[in-house]
Design a protein that fits this description.
This protein has helices at about 5-25, 35-55, 60-80, 85-110, 115-125, 140-160, 175-200, 205-225, 230-245, 255-275, 280-295, 300-310, 320-330, 335-345, 355-410, 425-445. It is mainly alpha-helical. Among the domains are: about 5-130, Four Helix Bundle (Hemerythrin (Met), subunit A) (Up-down Bundle); about 175-300, Four Helix Bundle (Hemerythrin (Met), subunit A); about 380-415 and about 420-445. The chain is globular and about 95 Å long.
Length: about 450
């Protein structure tokens, strides 16, 4: 499958797989009366993150199902669940997680979603998918959408002319407080992970820590855009570009780069909690940060312009439009076409469809077997705890029995030959000894 950003898609697939695994293992606590609020919050954060990131990557059906899971956990946080709801909710959660796992495998294989399975799921659980009324005037809606998109395009084109990075940022949407209440702890958790990774990079370059850092900022970017915090998402996107250059080896994690990343996290936290005194301070802080980020990670347009100026072939300002038209009108040469074809061929790997199908089937079986093995390991751990407790009790009883009857066993063993000239005692001696010991043991007991 072909995606515009294959590396980012791999990050999404890995994160989605981890969140689904967590939901599969711990969603059963919803029916337990002893479930703590922190456990339910973790389940909600996992489902909410799945809904946000999948919607950002253009998988609306996956996002819709994950959003329903998030609604269930949010409801469980705010209100107690009756005993009559445990059975239906458990069945709904299990089927929804299985559908998301199937959909994720299909996305990883073909880049498309399982439309038929999602439709069957919606038909089975109609109560969770109420019918929405059709818009009164679809043409007006489409015209309004086109107008808003054109305005956004004009704003993006006019933004650089002001010389302010802040003016390029999109405006935030109206975000309800209940969404911020759950989004802020999730973002803070990712910010903490990013800070820990940056501190570990000061001593050595660890690819695993760099990948964790990239995933944390990438998740914040996608989730912020999903909930409507577009400025936060745009700033996180530029920070992600900076970390991406570190991951690709184009930039070394020098102390000044690490300090800039830590400063970026501080700015993102201020944007998240709206700790700016006024708009002027917000503008100054963002402009200063993005200007420093642009020094280490210039945008694509800035890189192309800088390359043209460095080579000395850049057209003068008075004739930029004409030069662009001439470049577009001029046909590419045969050498450039041949080099482009060779580059495309060198980056292409041909694999038969049958082998890909077998590989994806094996991956699906591995995921299923891994889920089963995790469940078995959990059961074995519980069994080990039970056996350990039983073993301790048994050892205590054995020690108690041994201490109680050890002296009696030694007394009944009699005398051995060769000790003081005494031989094996006779039955009469044993009887008298036992009779004499009986009074002693009665007093001892």
């Amino acid at each position: 499958m072909n995606f515009p950003d294959r590396e980012a898609m791999e990050v999404f697939l890995q994160e989605a797989s981890e969140h689904l695994q967590y939901l599969r293992e711990y969603s059963s606590i919803l029916g337990e009366p002893s479930a703590s609020r922190s456990e339910l919050e973790k389940l909600y954060i996992a489902a909410h993150t799945l809904a946000g990131t999948s919607g950002t990557y253009g998988f609306p059906r996956f996002s819709e199902i994950a959003g329903k899971l998030a609604h269930v956990f949010q409801y469980a946080l705010n209100a107690p669940l009756g005993s009559d709801l445990h059975g239906p909710l458990t069945e709904f959660l299990s089927d929804a997680i299985s559908l998301l796992e199937t959909d994720l495998l299909e996305i990883s294989d073909t880049g498309k979603e399982v439309v038929d399975d999602v439709a069957a799921f919606r038909e089975r659980y109609r109560f969770a998918f109420p019918a929405q009324p059709a818009p009164l005037n679809a043409e007006l809606d489409s015209a309004a959408t086109a107008l808003s998109e054109s305005r956004a395009t004009i704003q993006e084109e006019e933004g650089p002319a002001t010389g302010s990075y802040f003016d390029r940022l999109p405006a935030d949407d109206e975000v309800p407080e209940e969404i911020l209440e759950f989004f802020q702890p999730e973002a803070e958790e990712h910010f903490q992970i990013a800070s820990d990774c940056l501190l570990s990079l000061e001593g050595s370059r660890n690819p695993e820590e760099i990948n964790r850092l990239f995933r944390a900022i990438h998740t914040v970017k996608g989730s912020a855009a999903q909930v409507g915090l577009r400025r936060l998402g745009a700033i996180a996107h530029r920070v992600e570009d900076l970390i991406g250059r570190i991951r690709d080896g184009k930039l070394e994690p020098a102390p000044d780069v690490v300090d800039l990343c830590l400063e970026s996290i501080d700015v993102l936290k201020k944007c998240l909690h709206r700790r700016w005194a006024d708009e002027a301070e917000f503008r100054a802080g963002v402009d200063s940060l993005l200007a420093r980020v642009a020094e280490f990670a210039p945008e694509e347009g800035d890189e192309a312009e800088g390359a043209g100026v460095a080579s000395g072939v850049g057209p003068p300002e008075s004739g930029q439009a004409a030069a662009r038209e001439q470049q577009l009108a001029a046909p590419p040469s045969q050498d450039s076409q041949r080099k482009a074809k060779q580059a495309a061929v060198s980056k292409t790997v041909r694999v038969s469809l049958g082998r890909l199908d077998r590989m994806m089937n094996n991956v699906g079986e591995l995921v299923i077997n891994r889920t089963r093995m995790v469940g078995r390991v959990t059961e074995l751990r519980r069994l080990i705890e039970t056996l350990g407790f039983s073993k301790e009790r048994l050892q205590g009883k054995v020690a108690e029995f041994q201490d109680k009857y050890e002296f009696n066993r030694i007394s009944n063993a009699g005398w051995l030959p060769g000790y003081g000239g005494r031989g094996v005692p006779t039955p009469a001696m044993l009887t008298s000894a036992a009779a004499g010991d009986r009074s002693f043991w009665s007093e001892f007991s």
